[in-house]
Write a structure and sequence with these properties.
- The protein has 3 helices and no strands.
- By secondary structure, it is mainly alpha-helical.
- It has one domain.
- α1 (about 1-10) packs antiparallel against α2 (about 20-30).
- The protein is elongated and about 50 Å long.
């Protein structure tokens, strides 16, 4: 992820890479983790919901 951050800065400044391709790659990389985030989010709201009911 850090390398994509650097790539974004370089593309944004017009130094290297195509900005639209960097953004597309970044979104693809994040989508790999979406199932884990979704599971965490569900668990978080379940725990917080139980905590708030007391």
């Amino acid at each position: 992820m850090y390398s994509l951050d650097d790539s974004y800065d370089l593309a944004k400044d017009g130094v290297h890479f195509d900005l639209s391709q960097v953004i597309h790659t970044y979104i693809e990389m994040l989508s790999i983790y979406s199932k884990y985030f979704s599971g965490f989010e569900k668990l978080y709201f379940k725990v917080m919901g139980n905590e708030w009911r007391f």
